[in-house]
Backbone:
């Protein structure tokens, strides 16, 4: 993986010293909150319901064991002994004190980490397929390009004051695990005549105006990608709306100007600036490819795995649910679920972080990933080591075999932490996971995603079942959407009807699931397939059969 | 026609800790909702809010939060304020851990 250069380290040291001085000036009264707020946000520091929150970037979700251990240390020393992994592959600490934040940032810099551009109207942390560089279905590892984008966008002078925040996701695989169609820019690697390039998708996004991204360019050769993206950002910076915060994302610009007009303007900008790019980016990209070269895989017998798989039903269940196919023979990708039944989705204690770091170091070529689905991945584990890895995970409460199942829920922090939330998300996720734990393998693959407000951090629009928590006349109320899809077949869910009260949302989901079990042609027909075959109506009938709707909202 | 004033407490986040504080009848700041002063008159509430907003050296984001009279002092009138007064529901952290609610 990429290790910070001297340039990166100097940049971080300067930036952290700057922020330390800004905090001191805020405390001394030299800066007002209005002056300080944009400065702290640029450094990932929010003020939430109960405390400050520090959002730390994990670029494209990749980190090594030393970085994970440092996150654990920070959780113990300056927070409450845990961290929350987010849908942008970042980690959030929920309880830091203002005076401690400069020290936390220095501790992060020691391991090449930071909180820069995790907030504000700039290019945010670039997200990537969490199986990048490991998955059997991949054309090539997209992370060298993701790192190039990180370097290019960090402190880019032209793009520090965009109309609104800007999110980029990238995948090197035809099977989209990075939700590229719900990003301001989505990049999907494609091959044309043996040449590598990207399909460029623009104007996707969730939030209060959910839009599936549109294809701006079917194929941009890799050498033209960065100037082409700069042309998109530059066009957005010039023509994106600044009069209304809720109409400022690029998706609104695309809808108002039309895709063809946006394409023409981007092309004009690209034609004007392309000549300024003289190949330095490609030289850096070549170096980055070496930094992301595959580890030294070993060749060994997989007999230990096969014996455990045959004899141990608990291991077999874990293997069937939490492993994915690796491109290297004898290897597997391990997803460690941070969704133990009844636990907070995406949370890991400092002990769990250290254990995962140890496993990565001992068995996983020192690599970890954070997925946008709020789990942790060991991308490169030899199959012969899987029984030992599983046994260690069991000891730490990390062996829940539920990846891709109903309890593997994405949930935003909701009103338990977030100042923007209109209802709670976490307890709803906890209760659903607990309610279905006994029969989730029977139910099969199903994605539930929960947001605690219309900003949709919990991706509810693209959940097979989406849940949106709202405040209806001073009471928590939950709307259900059905049929969303976060993959390459991206689709927005359809609102089922009136919302449900807090104590009625789990029974409502139970009615949907019972209807699905009745309707499916066979146990292999997953929920989303039944929805695509039959539409929303049978599920709406099941939802509202007993007349216990909460209101007519 | 004027909108009827809802009784409220003055609340903010502490600049240093980030946690929730309430203006007391003595003019100080408490971590405990029931120790807050309940304002039933709009003019008095707005004047107290303006005074709070003039303390940027220790407070962030002061505002009026709806509340009503309870047996032990003011109680939050909205569930958001109830969470702020107590802490998150997934862990015993925040005020509930420090027996401040």
Residues:
């Amino acid at each position: 993986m990429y290790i910070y250069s001297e340039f990166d380290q100097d940049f971080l040291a300067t930036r952290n010293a700057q922020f330390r001085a800004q905090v001191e000036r805020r405390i001394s009264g030299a800066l007002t909150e209005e002056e300080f707020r944009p400065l702290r946000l640029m450094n990932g520091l929010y003020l939430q319901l109960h405390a400050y929150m520090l959002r730390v970037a994990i670029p494209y979700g990749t980190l090594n064991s030393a970085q994970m251990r440092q996150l654990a240390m920070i959780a113990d020393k300056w927070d409450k002994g845990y961290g929350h992994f987010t849908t942008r592959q970042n980690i959030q600490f929920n309880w830091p004190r203002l005076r401690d934040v400069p020290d936390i940032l220095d501790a992060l810099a020691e391991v090449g980490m930071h909180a820069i551009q995790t907030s504000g109207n700039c290019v945010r942390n670039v997200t990537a397929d969490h199986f990048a560089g490991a998955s059997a279905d991949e054309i090539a590892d997209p992370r060298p390009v993701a790192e190039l984008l990180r370097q290019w966008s960090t402190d880019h002078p032209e793009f520090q004051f965009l109309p609104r925040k800007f999110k980029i996701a990238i995948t090197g695989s035809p099977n989209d695990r990075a939700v590229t169609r719900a990003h301001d820019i989505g990049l999907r690697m494609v091959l044309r005549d043996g040449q590598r390039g990207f399909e460029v998708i623009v104007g996707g996004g969730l939030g209060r105006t959910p839009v599936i991204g549109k294809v701006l360019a079917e194929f941009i050769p890799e050498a033209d990608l960065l100037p082409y993206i700069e042309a998109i950002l530059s066009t957005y910076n010039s023509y994106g709306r600044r009069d209304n915060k809720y109409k400022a994302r690029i998706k609104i610009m695309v809808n108002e100007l039309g895709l063809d007009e946006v394409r023409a303007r981007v092309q004009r900008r690209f034609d004007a600036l392309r000549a300024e790019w003289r190949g330095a980016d490609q030289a850096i990209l070549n170096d980055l490819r070496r930094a992301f070269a595959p580890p030294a895989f070993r060749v060994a017998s997989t007999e230990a795995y096969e014996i455990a798989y045959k004899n141990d039903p608990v291991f077999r269940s874990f293997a069937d649910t939490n492993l994915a196919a690796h491109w290297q023979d004898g290897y597997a990708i391990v997803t460690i679920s941070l969704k133990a039944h009844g636990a907070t989705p995406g949370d890991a204690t400092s002990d769990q972080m250290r254990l995962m770091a140890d496993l990565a170091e001992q068995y996983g070529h020192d690599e970890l990933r954070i997925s946008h689905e709020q789990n942790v991945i060991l991308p490169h584990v030899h199959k012969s080591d899987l029984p030992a890895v599983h046994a260690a995970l069991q000891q730490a409460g990390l062996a829940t075999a539920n990846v891709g199942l109903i309890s593997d829920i994405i949930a935003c922090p909701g009103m338990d932490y977030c100042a923007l939330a209109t209802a709670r998300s976490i307890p709803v996720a906890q209760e659903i996971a607990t309610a279905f734990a006994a029969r989730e393998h029977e139910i099969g693959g199903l994605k539930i995603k929960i947001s605690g407000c219309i900003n949709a951090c919990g991706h509810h629009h693209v959940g097979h079942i989406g849940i949106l928590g709202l405040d209806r006349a001073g009471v928590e109320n939950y709307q259900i959407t059905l049929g969303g899809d976060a993959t390459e077949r991206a689709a927005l869910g359809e609102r089922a009807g009136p919302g449900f009260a807090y104590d009625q949302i789990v029974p409502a989901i139970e009615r949907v699931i019972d209807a699905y079990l009745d309707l499916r042609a066979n146990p292999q027909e997953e929920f989303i397939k039944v929805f695509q075959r039959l539409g929303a109506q049978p599920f709406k009938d099941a939802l509202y059969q007993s007349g216990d709707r909460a209101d007519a909202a | 026609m004027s909108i009827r004033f809802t009784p409220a407490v003055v609340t903010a986040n502490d600049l240093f800790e980030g946690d929730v504080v309430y203006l007391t009848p003595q003019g100080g700041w408490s971590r405990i909702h029931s120790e807050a002063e309940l304002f039933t008159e709009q003019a008095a509430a707005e004047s107290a809010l303006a005074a709070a907003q003039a303390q940027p050296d220790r407070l962030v984001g002061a505002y009026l939060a709806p509340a009503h009279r309870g047996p032990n002092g003011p109680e939050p009138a909205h569930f958001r304020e109830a969470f702020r007064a107590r802490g998150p529901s997934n862990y015993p952290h925040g005020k509930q851990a420090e027996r401040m609610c």
